[in-house]
Structure formats: C-alpha cells, structure tokens
User: What shape does this take?
Amino acid sequence: MSATEIAGQNRDVPEPRFGFWRRSYAMLVKEFIQLRRDRVSFAMIVMIPVMQLLLFGYAINTTPRHLPTAVLIQEDSDLARSVLKAMENTSYFRFTREVHSVAEFDDLLQSGKVLFGVEIPRGFERAVRRGDRPALLVAADATDPVAAGSALGSLGALVQTALAHDLHIGDPPEMPFEIRAHARYNPAAESRLNIVPGLVGTILTMTMLIFTALSVTREIERGTMESLLSMPIRPVEVMFGKIIPYVIVGFIQASLIVSIGVLLFGVPILGSVVLLAALTTLFITTNLSIGYTFSTIVQNQLQAMQMSMMFFLPSILLSGFMFPFAGMPVWAQYLGEALPLTHYIRIVRAIMLKGAAPSNLQYDTIALIALMLVAMTIAVTRFRRTLD
Amino acid sequence: MSSVSTSAPDIAINVEGLSKSFGGREVVHDLSMQVKRGSIYGFLGPNGSGKTTTIRMLCGLLTPDAGEGTCLGYDIRRDADKIKRQVGYMTQRFSLYQDLSVRENLEFVARLYGLRDARAAARDMIQRIGLNGREEQLAGELSGGWKQRLALGACTLPNPQLLLLDEPTAGVDPKARRDFWNEIHALAAEGLTVLVSTHYMDEAERCHEIAYIAYGHLLAHGTVDEVIAKSALSTWTVSGDDLNGLAAELTGKPGVDMVAPFGTSLHVSGRDKAALEATIAPYRDRKGWRWEDSEPSLEDVFIDLMNRSKDNFQ
Assistant: This one.
C-alpha cells in the first residue's frame, strides 16, 4: 500500500496508459470466462445453429426426396434391375413395395401408400435392344405437383445414363423412351440453394440477439452491476467488452452453418470466401450491437427475450428470407430495409450463389454499417451509469 | 494536488445537505458529515435508515437530489470518474462474479483499474487476504467469510485512498469479524480512510468516530465517548434476582424511557435524571437488587435515539 505517502493530500491518479484498451480487455476476458462456465449457453452456441439448419433446411424443402415408390416388375432382367437401381440413385425414389398386378399397383397409388409406381413391361430388354422404344410407365401421385415435379424431372436423364452404361449397346442413337428435360444445375428450382444461405443470416440473428440482449440485465439481476459501476469503466468499454467475445462466437457459428450448408446441402460458394467472412462478421457485430441496445433499454431478462423476439419475427418475415422481397408491399419493403437481415440475405445469396464482387454489395454493406453505428450510439447513450 | 478541493486536505469526505428520494419517499434527509483522512468512521443505524443510499451518493453510484460536497477533494456530482479511481466500495450484497474464480475476479478488477501487472497484483492480494489454495475456486462457492475477504481484497486491490464498506460483516462469524477488523485497522494505519456501516455495537466501538443515522436523519456523531456524553441519558444498572419482574414493573413508569436486559443485569435509562431517580427510589432499598449509577452503553444511546426519532419522523 502506498497510501501512507499520500495521506493528507489530494492526488490525481492519472489515466493509465491505454486505459481504454485495458478496461475493454478486462471486460472481454471476464465475459469469455463467464461464457466458458455457462455450459448451457456454450451448448447453445453449437446446438442452435445445427438443429435449426437441419430442421429448417429439411423442413422447408420444396424438392422432397426419398418418396415412397411401388414397382411392378413384369420381367426380371439385368436391364430392369439397372433401371430401378438408377432411379434409386436419383435419391428421389425409395422403393417400398413390389407388386404383381396392375390392380394392386393402382390401389397403392390411390390410397396414397406410395407417391410413384414404376412398371417394367414384359419383353422390355428385348424391345430396347431392338430399338423399339418400349414404354416405361412411371405413374405419379400428382396431388403435390411440387413434390412430384422434381422427381419426374430427374427420371429421364438418369434412366438414360443407366441404359447407356449397362446395356452394352454403346450410345443409343435415340432415347429408348421419351425424356422430359431436367436441368442438372438449376438454382431457381432447388429451394435449398435459396434457403440455406438465408438460414445463415436468420440463425445468426437469433443467437446473436439473445447473447447480448441478456448481458446488461444479467449484471443487474445478479447484483454485479453495483460493483461494476463503482469502478472506473466507461459505457463504451463495457459495450466493447461484451460484444467482442460474441463476435468470435458468432464467427464460429457462421462457419459451422456455412460448412454444413456446403457439405450436407451441397450449396456452392461461387464468390470469395474472404469477402463472405468479412461481411458476415460485420453482420454479426450489427446484430450484437442491436441486442446490446435492447439490453440497455429493458428492465429484466424476460423483457430482453421478448424484445429480441419482437425483432426476430419481422426479420424472418420481411427480410426476403420467407417471401420474395420484391413481392412485398412497399411499406413492408421500407420496414425490411431497416433490418440487418434483409441486407445480409442479399449479400450472402449474392456471394454464394452468384459469385458477387464487393462492388455489387456496396449499398447493403453501408446499410449494415449504418445500422450498427445507430445501435451502438443508442446503447452508449442509454447505458445507465448510476443506480438512480 | 491539482484538485478542485474546497475542504481542508485532512478531510476525506465533506458533504453538506445531502438528500435523496425514491418514488416520493425521502430516504436521506439533509445529511452533512465530515470524515477525517486516515480515520475509521462508523456509520450506524437501523435497516432502511439510508446508510446504503448515503454511501452510494458518496461514490457516485447515485446522484443526490440536493446537497453538495467533496470526496477526496473531488466534487461528488461532477467528478464521479475521478472518485471511482481512488475509492474502493464493498457492497452490502456480494457483487463480484460468482461464476469467476477468486483469481479471475481479482485480475478483472486489476485490469479495470489499469494496473500494470494484473496477474501479479491478483497473486499478491490472494496472499494478503489468505486465500492461497483457493485461487481457482469459484467465488460463488466460497463461504460467507471467504466471500467477504475476497470482496475486501477486490476493493483494496487498486490502492484506494478511501474505502466505503457497506455492512461488511453481516452474516460473518465472530472470528472472521475480528480478523476483518484487524485488517481494517491495519489499512487505516497505512493512511487509508475507512467509512464502514454496521449494526454491531462492538464494531462501532472499534471506530475512531461514529455517526448514527435513522430514517434518513443524522442524529448523532463524534467519538463513542462524545456520543454517549451528548446523549444526556442517565442509566442505572441493576443486578440481582427476578430482573424480568422488575423490568415489567418499571416499563412505562414516569422518567423511565428504556429498560433493557444485559445478560445478568438490567439497564434502566431515562433522559430526565430527576424523574428517573424519583421513580426508582422505592425499588433501590429492596433486598436482592444492587443498583449502580452507570454510564449508558452505546446501545442504550442508539436505541434511545431511534425511539425518539421514530416519534419525530414517523
């Protein structure tokens, strides 16, 4: 204690060197430790993105796969087996029943026990070898045209491939039967290509908001705010200390989601990964700032959750994630422009699916920065420095 | 030295006319006090008397509605930031991070105050408060006494000039309380000023000066002897048989303001010495009781102050 030498007189304690950074760092280290101790939150960091992506990614699926299919085999030949194998390989069809009569076949379709039925006619292989172009009947339950459409679309090309491969007849001069054209790569028809990048933004919005929305109220409810306020830390320093650890957490989450999107859902990243990472980090920080702002406004953790939900729902509905942005009424579009998710969804879809360059994304990038700065300003102004 | 000091340099706290209301209820009323540097100043009063509110106004956690003053020479309204850098505030409820370990809590505080080597500072403090071996224990898992030591360690870590301790020994066992007070005296001997609020009379008697506050009003202040002398309370100590019966008989009689048992004896006190003596005269000659004209204890004085203030302010 050096108190003896200064007792009896006033002494200005100078602002320590790099005081701002030291104090922000102190806060940051503390938040990291607390995060590590909070096992539930820690589990949420991994579980939320994975579960959401798997649930939404598969649930919001307009090209369903592994649809139940019945087969009526009138001829047991190598060619017939090849055709069926090729159909199963498209992953649209799953053979659940083998039937022996046309009546049984019709009954299954009518009752909805299968969505498709395939009939291999008698003398099929011989007719193909002769070039008679026999008919391979594929009956579909078209009550859900979306479900049936993609599966049927895939059929022609794949059956043709199988035939070419297994028939030992070289390139057939003509198609053995009529083939409906199926685009091998058609983003517009593949809903997951549109949904997965959008999900990156949606999931990040939810997790990031909640992380920081609770941060200030938690200090108040646990009583630690009293100590914190009695120490020489400024509102900006508290804010940075509370946001930065979660930027890293958010970045990990985003990497996880994008990796799953690429590996499991086959979504491409046509543009620059570095650009995607940079703008994702910006988006994460913007959401954290907004969550933190909520935290400085609300009275308790419940209100913080409610406020986050109030922000999250319009984000999902008005950002262009669920409905095409251009199709929304004008007032909704204005609201949408005020949501970070709107801008991020444009950015992430453009980079991943269209290979966009930074110059294409200027407007949305600036919008994200502006929203972040507005949120931070409100947060710093709103932060109560006393217990009044 | 380059401060806005308006008070003598040997005064650590100098406030006048502090008032604070919450929701229309005045919690602190026109409170003035001076605390000398290097002294231990006891802040006494019943629950809800405004002790915590006063302490919070001193360290900038609350803004007074009225009144002004200085803390370490800094204006309590304008210089809260400078005050915070030199004041250690130990809250009534443990308010360090329960989910951080002892070491992590101390390192956090050290970093916040910009100490050059936070790890070393935390290590030294762990030695000083005797928490070695428990560095990695979570603060939330410590017992009450250890929590209190940790809290004291945290608020003395940045070398403050003034300590504000809000009921630091509530719920702590007598041994830990004694150790704690020895530590407080050691710190004061090094030149630290300590303002400590408490309920315990024995702790009050360990302070250089005390102030008594009830219902937001500062009712008495000075050294223990001064406070007792100023009370103008006459007290007789009775020892003997059936003190309970005597207490029941005397309570409410003219001149008897207070009857309180103290172990094997009874304190009979009154503000009007003549009336008190007239009332007790018939009892003094009775067999089995020994009457002694004595000094009132600090507790007698405080209970009396509280009873009177209740009449005045409620």
